[in-house]
Structures are given as C-alpha cells and as structure tokens.
Amino acid sequence: MIIFPAIDLKGGKCVRLTQGKKDEETVFSDDPVDMAKLWEDQGAQYLHVVDLDGAFDGLPKNLSIVEQIVNNINIPIEFGGGLRTTESVKSVLDLGVERVIIGTKALDSPSWVEELCSLFPGRVAVGIDAKNGKVAVHGWTSLSEKTAIDFAREMEKFSPCAIIFTDISKDGMLQGPNIESLKELLSSIKTPVIASGGISSLKDIEYICQLPVEGMIVGKALYTGHIKFSEAKQLCDSICLNK
Predict the structure, then answer these.
(1) Is 23 a catalytic residue?
(2) What are the residues whose beta carbons fall under 8 Å from the beta carbon of 105, sequence distance 6 or more?
C-alpha cells in the first residue's frame, strides 16, 4: 500500500485546486522541487505529479520542473497532465518519470491507450476522474456520457499498470472520499486501483487501507496539516502488516 503525496504544478508553483476549478487555486509552495524533497525526506515511496497547465491546455507546460524533481530525488514519480501524443509520453518517460497517467485522450482514443500499453508495458496508468458517476475530461471542465465503471472495464482490456480513480466532487474539499464509488469500481475490475479525492483524515487513511487498492493519493490534507505524512504512513504500514 503506497501513499502518494500529490504535487500539482501550475505556473511553475505547487498549488491545489478545489474540485479541479481553475480559478479556485491555493499556492502552497513556490518551489516544487523542495516540496518533492520534503515528501521524500518524510518517507514517501512514490510521488504523484500533475501538470495542471498541461491538463487545461492539452500540452505539458512544466516539464523543466518535472525534470528537476526527477534529478533531485531518489523515489519514482508518476506524471500526468496534457499527455495527448505518443511523442509527449516518450519525452516524459525519457526524463526519468517512472510512469505516465493518461486521462482525456484515453476517452477520446482508446486504441491509442492500447498502443501505449504495448509500447511502454508497465509504465502507463489510466486516470479516471468522475463526477456523479460520469467521466470528466479536459482538466475536469466537461463531463462525458460514459460512466466511470464502463470506461474502467474498457481500459482494463489494454492492461494498464493501474487505474487512478478520482472523485472530483470530493477533491480538495477535505470532506472524505467517496467510498461507495471506490468500492463499486474495485468490484468491477481486476486492474490495480489507486484512490484519490477527498482523503482528509487518518480515519480516511485507515478505511482505505482496508480496501484492496494499490495505494492512495493525498494532496490538500497534507499541505494544510490535516494529515501528517509520517503518521499516515505509520498507520497504513501497521494495517497492511496485520492484514
């Protein structure tokens, strides 16, 4: 079980958005590299990095910062945001990123995801961001008609290394995750699932640790102090040891 601290990049800074809204931004650090080092120093095993500018614009905008992060820490990184071409995926992996996260383009072009999973086995995760059960795309600015469950089943055929599931309505709200939606997804697919969105307390950590997920992404709660990473990791390790 891995707890992924989230680093969201916007304008070269480490920020958090509320429910993915571009105009509801809080800057937590002007130096994302230092923030990455901080999480590593506190025991993080993996980082979740998202280029928000890339997600909104359809093209990665903060790759120089991603490269600096890769070069200054010793733990792996998963990266998403604006990856819409094979060339952009390859360029990110060439920087030293462990795995990429494909979101919007996965819904638009499932065959492309199949191609990526074949070209880069074990290094392509699919991000499924949902609101009211429907898949959200283009930086969460619009909803598709496809349900998250149907989309996950479709993606599973291509053998991605993980499905990263985010409930947008919970993201950045510090009100707890959508456990029912997460359970429904877990019962529908066999691909490893990483939970994201709304995790805001050690109780949330405790509950998710008891589910069959690969890990969980924690963002705003770490930056506001609602959760201390060391305490969360200790709790998670203890629960997993006693499973």
Answers:
(1) no
(2) 83, 84, 112, 113
The per-residue pLDDT for 57 is 86
What local confidence, expressed as pLDDT, does residue 184 receive?
93
Burial of 14 (0-12, 13-18, 19+ CB in 10 A): buried
Catalytic residue among 31, 94, 108, 129: 129
pTM: 0.91
Q: Which residue has the higher pLDDT, 148 or 140?
A: 148
What is the phi/psi pair of residue 44, to 5°? -60, 140
Q: What is the DSSP letter of 170?
A: T
Determine contact, residues 196/171, Cβ cutoff 8 Å: yes
SS3 at position 191: coil
How far is residue 45 from each of residues 32, 77, 157, measured CA to CA in Å? Answer: 17, 9, 28
Question: Which is the catalytic residue, given 8, 53, 167, 171?
Answer: 8
Q: pLDDT per residue over 32-64, tens digit each?
A: 999 999 999 999 999 999 999 998 888 899 999
R_g of the chain computed on alpha carbons: 16
57 is catalytic: no
